């Protein structure tokens, strides 16, 4: 069954090793065709990577243990695994896209939905993992081969939901690599815990985090960059593609691709047409919209950002639990999962 969760349990290092073993069969072929890996290789041995490693070991030591285990499972040099996880912190433009939306319906049910856009070569080669560490709530997440989960879409057993969008910032500051920080969010028990982590940790790169919870009526969009952490509490609805849109974003240097601009504009237009009534089906219809030369659902072989939609997720948060439906470019889900969320 597509996206049937792969169960992974144990210590942090054991979890990393299992993730690495899961990805190992395709990593050589993945890297051989990846322009991102080619662009990263000149950074091998750079002292700046040592600074990022030190920040990660200090701020998110448990996640660092997973990274060490991942290198073991992949049978790769730990320095290369770290380099791969720093791709968005080192390169201003990578093949990571995504569109996220949040909605609060008339009954107070919270919805978060997300298109996971990435390297087209990965279509059909990714997994969903059910990770249960010994010392944290555990979570479900989409898993890119060879990258710790968390920088895509996921939810943990404390009821926290997170989706991630790439921000192409033109800044580099020594800090925690953005992918490791996103993974650490899935260890948080509450929305305030997640916001505090994103605000307080030094950030090496830029991500947009869309956050919700089964135990909290609030929804948040967070633009976390090396220079600032902008937190927006969401009212009824909210859309985010791959560039900063919060107040003050114009003062931060960034790359805005034509695809990101088009998806942001079209998603806002479609959401404006909902009025006060929408449900999960409407969120999926929005994310599967194919209007225009640069549509929200991305399937073109000549996509200008080198990205295609690999999966679509829709989270429903209500009654102390999280329901997740995963779609494969079709109107009906290929997987439905319920995550009972502890307090």
Automatic annotation (TrEMBL):
InterPro entries: C45_proenzyme-like, Peptidase_C45, Peptidase_C45_hydrolase. Pfam families: AAT. Residues 106-325 form the Peptidase C45 hydrolase domain. This is Peptidase C45. It comes from Bordetella genomosp. 1. The lineage of its organism: Bacteria, Pseudomonadati, Pseudomonadota, Betaproteobacteria, Burkholderiales.
